[in-house]
Hints:
This is Nuclear transport factor 2 family protein. By secondary structure, the protein is α+β, with helices and mostly antiparallel strands.
Amino acid sequence: xxxxETTIDTYLEAYGEADPARRAELTARSWSEEGRLSDPPMxxxxxxxxxxxxxxxxxxxxxHTFRRTSAVDAHHGVARYGWDLVGPDGTVAVAGMxxxxxGDDGRLVRVAGFFGDLPPRAx
Length: 123
């Protein structure tokens, strides 16, 4: 597994972690201090905002965890990968993909998340 894959998996683990102390530790390992995460309904900048965003998702989806569903496809400092938000019974609540930019130290500086499949082209 590459360093970037490990960082992304650590981030996804943080997103699904219910324990605040463990979530903070995982976030610090995977995100730069000023990292920015944008998902369709919300945005976070910095560790405190990320923690609040992760906690909000945990309150909406108790017991759910994130899992990466694809390889990490990366080039020229940008990566993409698929993920699922999985319930305790194995049901996928939400699926999507992220586009991520790691910083010089390997931690994430920017992630943009997208939910569901790509929309069809409108001609």
